[in-house]
Amino acid sequence: MTKSLLLGKSAGTRLVLVGLALVWVLFQLLNPNFLSPRNLSNLLLQIAVLGTLAIGMVVVLVLGEIDLSVGAIAGVSAGLLALLISQGLPWWVAIGAALAAGGLIGFIHGSIITAFGIPSFIVTLAGLLVWQGVQLQLVGDQGQIPIRDVVIRGIASTYVPTLLGWLIALLGVAAIFAARLVRRRRRERFGLAVPALSADLLGAGLAGVAVLAVCAVLNSYFGIPWVFVLVLTLLVGCSVVMETTAFGRHIYAIGGNREAARRAGIQVRRRTITVFVVISMIAALAGIIEASRQFSASNSLGGGTLQLNAIAAAVIGGTSLFGGRGRIYQALLGALVVGSVQNGLDLLGQPAAIKNIATGVILVTAVAVDAVGRRRRLARGAAE
């Protein structure tokens, strides 16, 4: 039983959940305010940008690629958004332009990668420098463009009314049960092994209880932040695309074995460009959220260790750096782990250096677990 829990198909997710529980218990013992409704609400607001970027990072890692420029793309998009708002354009035009700019950047990255066969690591590292320069040009000598539009400012600073929050939570619980049953029926239709029905219902029930508990805690403060609803909507949308569409299956196939996918008739170049467009648009969305949090776009937005933390969150959540393996919901789990560690160290008054060291140690541990698991799977495959 113990061996099954540690080495089974969902062992990575279980380990992340156990690690997250240990982090929460440790910081609660060190600071009684850690699990207060106010701090948990702040934690969700703090991880909104990181979680958004991590969702996109899971998609590109599953493809077997990487994007080091997402922070700079977020900064460029936020700068463009603030600039257009300051010129008197309506908020929906500014948001559309910011997302379109992100998509165009992703198209450029993907086209260069596929046309010249340059590793995505190099192209996006160069893109990081280029787009940071563009960001500086957009924001200008002032170093900051304030945003006064109430709609933009309200994205990350308003909350769902209590009754509507409960309705959203109940819809979430219903969606969890429906997803479990649909996935089970699909596997049965193709003759694949399925777990016992009681195990499926128990798992969905535990997830549903967790959703209702989170809703109760947040409603005891100001309610569910609208930006968290936005992140969950993005998460559900990407999950549906990756797990139920031909596009998603092609991404997993390319990440698992690029040459085999090409021989099977999958258009590898087109899929690669599409993935870089998607992750860049998600990075642009993260920039809009951060600009809403700060009520401005600044030279420092998207800088620092943001993109590295996004990669860390995706890997810590269970996405493989070697491609072909990872689930979208794991981005949120990883973001919760990284965000909880940083939030807890903030409450303890620890400096940024300690937060970086702690995040780095957790990342190395997660990569080591992934590498060991991959080696065991390869050995098992060879033995079979």
UniProtKB/TrEMBL annotation:
Entry keyword set: Cell inner membrane, Cell membrane, Membrane, Sugar transport, Transmembrane, Transmembrane helix, Transport
Regions crossing the membrane: 12-31, 43-63, 68-85, 91-108, 115-134, 163-182, 194-218, 224-242, 272-289, 301-321
Main localization of the protein described in the UniProt heading: membrane
UniProt GO cellular component terms: plasma membrane
Source species, domain of life: Bacteria
Membrane topology note: Multi-pass membrane protein
Cell location: Cell membrane
GO molecular function, one term: transmembrane transporter activity
Presence of the UniProt keyword Membrane in the record: yes
Keyword Kinase: no
InterPro entries named in the record: ABC_transp_permease
The protein's role, per its UniProt record: Part of the binding-protein-dependent transport system for D-xylose. Probably responsible for the translocation of the substrate across the membrane.
UniProt protein name: Xylose transport system permease protein XylH
Species for this entry: Propionicimonas paludicola
